[in-house]
């Protein structure tokens, strides 16, 4: 950067820089419009340089951005699992504590009731009665003996789907149920609310909703398959609702358990197990336990209960009660399956990679739904791959885009394959579905790849380089025994064939154009450096004997047309071999044959028409170079790249054998 540019950069980066004063001062000091234009160009060039540097830094760190995003996604999934485990541990510890303290609480409660036998209970009921008088349609709620108010307050209900406010409600938490009442717009006397819904405490689960501005201070009530979301006035009131709801539910569960223990008669000493399986408590409570597990998204617990039941019922005869129980359980299985299917649907969040689907997939397999689990898993991953490809932006160099496209697609395919192998290890029948899915997703990749590589009319060498990149990424899949190279090639064959034929036509047109201006003169490269460079190029093409056509000076004993043709044809051959696979064999072979015929026919025509003996001898020299030097190199290089000889090229060379004849004769080739 020039000294003036450095000073300008420092001035613009100064914290005290004021644009208005700077422009005013610049206008006063400039001699005219030309100075302002020059200064504007300097500022513009500095802005372009800054933008270019910023873009380079973004490209430089792009891979790190991608890896960081993946790690964050994996960490989020692991944190969710850890939170689930901690919640279960907390529940277990609280149950143990509750059991230890229940005796002390019962003794304390008995002492309070002995001291105040009726006052406390009557006060709670009077409070509830006075509040329920304000609820339209809530008079019958007090018909249940022993029901009293625990907590109440105003809440705002939100729509579960779009998180928009629905209505203002008043919630009444009682010792055995939760009443939701809506506010009346037109009050009638003391009545303020209208009855909306009443939920038994053991029929729903309470879930905290994480704050995400502007959605704050919310909690969710889950009543499978429905749910409702409420917002408290502030975080303190929300915390009170969560704590009191949790404590009230536990108290009711403890009370119900003690009531069953008091009512249930002691079993005879001689009978350890009831002879009637339907007298077992866990079987009687199984449908309700399944509902709770489904509502709390405890899929593993629900499937464990089903496995336990199926194992137990294996030894029992098929009676009407067994059939009725199975019918009841089948309804829960259907509900559980629907929830698991929804967990795997593409409409759900696709973040977290294939591992995020493992929980739902494993439970579907345990339910005997391995085919459905396989189908949903592959649909989920196909949607994830398609979304990743669509979100990939085309910025900067095309080669960078191709690298990112290949990295995203083949990495996703590799991760999906590893997860599939882990989830469906015992279901070998699903592997064919994965192979079919892999081929269909490969088509998505090839569509995006071809649109950028072949539709943009890039050169053949560029297309060959990018196809090579795709093949190298595809080879990564072989480490898990999945080889999709053939699928990739078969999907690319149409575009590669068109590219080869298009580039062949370009070479033929260029050769014909040079032929039309042919003067049959020796090529003068003007400098020894240019001669040395041409020798290196020919040596790189495989024409090792080219030095015999050059001397100590800057002249080459060949025409410019023949030298240019040789370089262009050898380049076409090398790029064609990079793109080669068996389906393209005849296309590449016929293209080479057509290109060679254009040059050979031109030499033949010139030799027949030329009358000058010196020029005729020079033409014969060029013909010998093509026949004895160039065509054998083409045949040898083609055989090395393909693995088998090209009989068509051999026949072509034999049919164009030059013949040394009298210079006056017009016969040139046989």
From TrEMBL:
GO terms for cellular component: exocyst; growth cone; perinuclear region of cytoplasm. Residues 252-271, 649-670 are annotated as: Disordered. It is found in: Cell projection, Growth cone; Cytoplasm, Perinuclear region. GO terms for biological process: exocytosis; Golgi to plasma membrane transport; protein transport. Transmembrane segments: none annotated. PROSITE patterns: PH_DOMAIN. SMART domains: PH (SM00233). InterPro entries: Cullin_repeat-like_dom_sf (IPR016159), Exo84 (IPR033961), Exo84_C (IPR032403), Exo84_C_1 (IPR042561), Exo84_C_2 (IPR042560), PH-like_dom_sf (IPR011993), PH_domain (IPR001849). Its main location: other. Keywords: Cell projection, Cytoplasm, Exocytosis, Protein transport, Transport. The keyword Protein transport applies. It comes from the Eukaryota. Residues 252-263 have a biased composition (Basic and acidic residues). Pfam families: Exo84_C, PH_EXO84, VPS51_Exo84_N. The keyword Protein transport applies. Residues 148-250 form the PH domain. Component of the exocyst complex involved in the docking of exocytic vesicles with fusion sites on the plasma membrane. PANTHER family: EXOCYST COMPLEX COMPONENT 8. Belongs to the EXO84 family. This is Exocyst complex component 8. The gene is exoc8.
């Amino acid at each position: 950067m020039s000294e003036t540019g450095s000073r300008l950069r420092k001035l613009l980066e100064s914290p005290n820089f004021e644009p208005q004063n700077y422009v005013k001062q610049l206008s006063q000091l400039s001699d005219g419009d030309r100075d302002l234009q020059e200064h504007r160009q300097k500022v513009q060039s500095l802005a372009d340089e800054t933008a270019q540097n910023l873009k380079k830094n973004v490209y430089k760190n792009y891979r790190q951005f991608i890896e960081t995003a993946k790690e964050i996604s994996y960490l989020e999934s692991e944190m969710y699992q850890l939170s689930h485990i901690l919640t279960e541990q907390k529940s277990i510890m609280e149950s143990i504590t509750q059991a230890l303290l229940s005796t002390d609480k019962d003794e304390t409660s008995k002492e309070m009731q002995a001291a105040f036998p009726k006052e406390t209970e009557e006060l709670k009921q009077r409070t509830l009665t006075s509040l329920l008088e304000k609820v339209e349609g809530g008079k019958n709620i007090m018909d249940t003996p022993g029901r009293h108010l625990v907590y109440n307050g105003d809440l705002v209900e939100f729509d579960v789907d779009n998180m928009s406010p629905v209505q203002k409600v008043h919630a009444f938490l009682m010792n055995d149920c939760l009443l939701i009442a809506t506010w009346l717009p037109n009050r009638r006397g003391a009545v303020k609310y209208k009855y909306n819904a009443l939920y038994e405490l053991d029929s729903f689960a309470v879930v905290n909703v994480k704050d995400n501005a502007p959605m704050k201070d919310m909690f969710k009530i889950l009543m499978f398959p429905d749910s409702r979301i409420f917002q408290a006035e502030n975080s303190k009131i929300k915390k009170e609702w969560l704590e009191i709801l949790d404590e009230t539910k536990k108290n009711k569960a403890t009370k119900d358990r003690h009531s069953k223990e008091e009512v249930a008669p002691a079993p005879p000493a001689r009978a350890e197990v009831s002879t009637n399986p339907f007298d077992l408590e866990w079987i009687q409570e199984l449908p309700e336990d399944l509902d709770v597990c489904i509502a709390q998204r405890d899929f593993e617990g629900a499937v464990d209960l089903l496995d336990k039941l199926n194992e137990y019922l294996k030894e029992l005869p098929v009676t009407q009660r067994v059939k009725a129980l199975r019918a009841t359980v089948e309804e829960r299985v259907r509900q559980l399956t629907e929830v698991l299917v929804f967990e795997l649907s593409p409409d759900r969040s696709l973040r977290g990679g294939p591992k995020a689907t493992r929980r739902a997939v494993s439970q579907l397999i345990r339910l005997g739904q391995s085919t459905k689990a396989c189908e949903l898993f592959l649909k989920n991953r196909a949607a994830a791959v398609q979304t990743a490809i669509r979100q990939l932006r085309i910025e900067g160099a095309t080669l960078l885009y191709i690298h990112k496209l290949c990295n995203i697609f083949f990495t996703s395919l590799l991760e999906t394959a590893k997860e599939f192998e882990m989830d469906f290890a015992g279901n070998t029948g699903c592997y064919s579905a994965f192979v079919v899915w892999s081929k269909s997703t490969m088509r998505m990749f090839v569509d995006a790849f071809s649109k950028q590589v072949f539709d943009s009319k890039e050169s053949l060498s560029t297309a060959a380089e990018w196809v090579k990149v795709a093949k190298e990424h595809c080879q990564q899949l072989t480490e898990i025994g999945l080889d999709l190279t053939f699928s990739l090639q078969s999907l690319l064959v149409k575009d590669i064939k068109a590219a080869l034929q298009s580039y062949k036509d370009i070479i033929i047109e260029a050769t014909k154009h040079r032929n039309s201006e042919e003067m049959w003169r020796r090529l003068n490269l003007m400098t020894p450096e240019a001669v040395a460079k041409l020798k290196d190029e020919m040596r790189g093409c495989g024409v090792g004997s080219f030095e015999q056509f050059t001397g100590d000076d800057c002249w080459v004993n060949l025409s410019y047309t023949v030298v240019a043709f040789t370089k262009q044809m050898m380049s076409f051959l090398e790029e064609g071999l990079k793109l080669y696979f068996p389906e393209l064999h005849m296309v590449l072979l016929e293209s080479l044959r057509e290109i060679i015929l254009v040059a050979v026919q031109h030499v033949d025509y010139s030799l027949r028409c030329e009358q000058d003996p010196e020029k005729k001898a020079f033409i014969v020299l060029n013909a010998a170079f093509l026949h004895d030097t160039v065509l054998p190199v083409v045949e040898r290089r083609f055989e090395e790249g393909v693995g088998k000889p090209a009989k068509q090229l051999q026949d072509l060379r034999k049919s164009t054998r030059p013949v040394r004849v009298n210079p006056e004769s017009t016969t040139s080739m046989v």
